[in-house]
From TrEMBL:
The protein's name: Arylsulfatase
Record EC number: 3.1.6.1
Keyword Metal-binding: yes
Domain Sulfatase N-terminal: 32-413
Gene: atsA_3
Family note: Belongs to the sulfatase family.
GO molecular function, one term: metal ion binding
């Protein structure tokens, strides 16, 4: 979550603090974007995300201005403005504002944290990672070359340690310099993974199911004054493909499995809270707490990506493709005791996402409240003082773009009109400082457009126009629904048919805002916006890797194999009896492959989204020099492998499902299997299993795109459309 962090509730002895109730304000109408990169861009710039270039997550570059995935020089970030004003600036954790194609050691770092105003950075440039084995940690401007993590390592603990260290170091060197800390957790984004002790504390808490949890949470929300007593709880999400079954209709075995998923999610939140307390305790020990503005918020609503059943194979569930075959492995069998640990990449069922979004409808990616309504807390004991009759709640509508101007006003810093001689673009957000001091003040953000993958909304003065867009459906006025969220905050009663005049007015306002902010063309996952720009073709060139090469970055690695045929040629000086270890590895427990030598025999391990296939390819004879692995892309998103040793054909697995989307999630390593292993049994026997022989090189040669590649799908769509012209 993109935050400097807040106070949290404390129970004695667990490292968490009791919040100063007189200084904490809660805003329940804070709004973000339905996905993470756009919300982060809005938060850090105060500008609408499409205008900044983040209409989507930073995992695409189709060539349109709203999808540039670069913060222009004339849009200063909050960190740049604060650093120019004399602040020390630190970023820790999830960044997700650099294209994945610009995340390697050879990349243009123009949109990495240090180039966007931060003095120091430690974390993961992408949107998600393995919390036990982060796939690529970056310190400042350099990816770290890590073979393995220490026993007990957990990423949320690590980034908190780094944040605390930065603050302690600053105060040791300068007792007065103000600082800005942007601590953005990768938790609780999937894959859901948590420490065993944290999971254990939540055992059995969710056995009652998502319906019971949702009702209890809604009752608590109303009792706490977050919603008026007359607010209605919507029925379970029932939209096609987004629906949630009644908990009582789920089998007993499924209930036990599904409850385990939620226990892991809760444990992740628990761990964030513990680490939050450690940071706050540090500020308190330094005497900084009372004069530190602390903000806590989220980027989007709970995610329904786990589907109706959830998954222990998140990367296969995350593989969005219009031609997934019927036998696609959307889940893998796992011992329940492994769920949440380093051997399982979990996403919970969307019933829990519905409960997480209580009392709102739908999920992340949607412009209904379940996708965009997020918590917001702000604390500043020395600067925020409430009257005795002020309960600290704020119900005014505010938006993510308002956070930067608000913090600047509270800090007494004016955003300059020019920076480095260049006029800066104006912000779309407005400071809500008046709302913080006066609960009866009007919202400073009376209207706002929103768009994500074809879903659209427009808010103005209490009314909200919103769509639930189906990919491939026409964009017309029949999609609009209208709600008065002042009296119907849970978006139940559609007023579109009774207020066609207002629908027309707000629809026109949405279109005007869309043209002004660079929203068009509208994507909906059925068209060409999934394609990448031609500049990425260079990432698909052949590459030769020598022993000792740091791990090849995830995205660069994927371009060598994704949706295509390919070959891997391994050249040995000469195999000698007793040589052993991993020759090449690509991927991790979520999917990947490796070639390794053990007890004189060559093995090909293929991890199919968590299901391991290990093929014994026979003995290696002394003097062996060349091993060739050839993959042929076949229909149905499959690869057929062939394996030869000095020209002799060896055993290979039957055709397997291709690794697509975010898999393989870990990059290519030569002579070692780093961090999360492809084969857990090999890892248990040998650890990273460095090759002991004389390996000369490993060469990847990408072949032709396969029949289910994005290029082939785009051609098929074009041909189908042309046939109707």
């Amino acid at each position: 979550m993109p935050t400097p962090l807040p106070h949290s509730a404390r129970t004695s002895g667990d490292g968490r603090r009791e919040a100063n109730a007189a200084s904490v304000l809660r805003a329940v109408l804070d709004h973000g974007q339905p996905l993470c990169s756009p919300s982060r861009a809005a938060l850090l710039t105060g500008c609408n995300p499409n205008r900044v270039g983040y209409a989507m997550v930073a995992n695409a570059d189709p060539g349109f201005p709203g999808y540039g995935m670069e913060i222009a020089d004339d849009i200063p970030t909050l960190a740049e403005t604060l650093r120019d004003a004399g602040y020390a600036t630190y970023a820790v954790g999830k960044w997700h504002l650099a294209r994945d194609s610009s995340s390697s050691a050879a990349a243009d770092r123009a949109n990495w944290p240090l180039q966007k105003g931060f003095d120091q950075y430690y974390g993961v440039l992408e949107g998600l990672t393995n919390l036990f084995h982060p796939h690529q940690l970056v310190r400042d401007n350099s990816p770290l070359d890590i073979d393995e993590f220490p026993e007990g390592y957990y990423y949320t603990d690590d980034i908190t340690d780094q944040a605390i260290s930065m603050v302690k170091s600053l105060r040791a060197h300068d007792p007065d310099k103000p600082f800005f800390l942007y601590l953005a957790h990768n938790a609780v984004h999937a894959p859901l993974q948590a420490k065993p002790a944290d999971i254990e504390r939540h055992r059995g808490r969710y056995d009652g199911g998502w319906d019971e949890l949702r009702r209890a949470r809604f009752a608590k929300q109303k009792a706490d004054g977050l919603f008026p007593e007359e607010t209605e709880l919507p029925a379970r999400n029932a939209e096609d493909g987004l629906d949630v079954a009644a908990w009582d209709d789920v089998t007993a075995d499924e209930q036990r499995l599904y409850a385990r998923y939620m226990e892991v999610y809760a444990a992740m939140v628990d761990n964030v809270d513990q680490n939050l307390g450690r940071l706050v305790d540090t500020l308190d020990a330094l005497g900084e707490l009372d004069n530190t503005i602390i903000v806590f918020t989220s980027d989007n609503g709970g995610s329904g990506e786990g589907g109706a059943e959830g998954s222990r194979s998140y990367l296969s569930r995350f593989a969005h493709h219009p031609r997934l075959p019927e036998d696609w492995p959307a889940d893998v069998d796992r011992d329940p005791e492994l769920i949440g640990g380093p051997r399982s990449l979990v996403h919970y069922p969307r019933g829990w996402a519905m409960a997480s979004n209580t009392p709102f409808r739908l999920y992340k990616r949607h412009t209904y409240a379940g996708g965009v309504r997020v918590p917001f807390l702000i604390s500043w004991p020395q600067g925020l003082h409430r009257s005795p009759d002020d309960d600290g709640l704020r119900h005014q509508y505010q938006y993510a773009t308002d956070i930067a101007p608000t913090l600047l006003e509270l800090a007494g810093i004016e955003r300059p009109g020019h920076r480095r001689g260049i006029p800066v673009q104006e912000q779309d957000g407005s400071s809500f400082a008046p709302v913080l001091t006066d609960p009866s003040a009007d919202s400073t953000h009376p209207e706002q457009y929103c768009e994500m993958t074809g879903n659209r909304s427009y808010y103005r003065d209490g009314h909200k126009l919103v769509t639930l867009h189906r990919p491939g459906a026409p964009y017309d006025d029949s999609e609009w629904a209208l709600y008065d969220i002042r009296t119907d905050p849970t978006e139940i009663h559609d007023l579109a048919s009774s207020r066609p005049d207002l629908v027309k007015e707000l629809a026109a306002a949405w279109e005007e805002a869309a043209w002004r902010n660079g929203v068009f063309p509208l994507p909906d996952a059925s068209g060409a916006l999934a394609l990448r720009g031609p500049a990425e073709a260079r990432l698909s060139r052949p590459v030769t890797l020598l022993p000792g090469t740091p791990e090849l970055e995830r995205y660069r690695s994927s371009r060598l194999i994704a949706f295509r045929s390919f070959t891997i040629t391994l050249e040995l000086e000469s195999y000698e009896e007793g040589d052993s270890g991993v020759l090449v590895s690509h991927g991790d427990q979520g999917g990947g492959y490796s070639l390794y030598v053990e007890e004189g025999r060559l093995h090909f391990a293929y991890n199919e989204y968590g299901a391991l296939r290990d093929t014994d390819a026979g003995p290696l004879q002394p003097g062996t020099r060349t091993i060739l692995l050839a993959a042929t892309a076949e229909p149905g998103l499959r690869w057929r492998f062939g394996l030869t040793v000095d020209g002799d054909e060896r055993a290979a697995p039957d055709p397997v499902h291709q690794l697509i989307g975010m898999a393989p999630f870990q990059g290519i390593s030569v002579g070692v299997d780093r961090k999360s292993p492809v084969s857990w049994p090999v890892h248990e026997r040998h650890g990273v299993f460095r090759y002991t022989g004389a390996l000369r090189s490993v060469t990847y040669r990408p072949g032709a795109p396969g029949p289910d590649s994005p290029e082939a799908v785009a051609r098929a769509l074009h041909d189908a459309a042309a046939a109707f012209e």
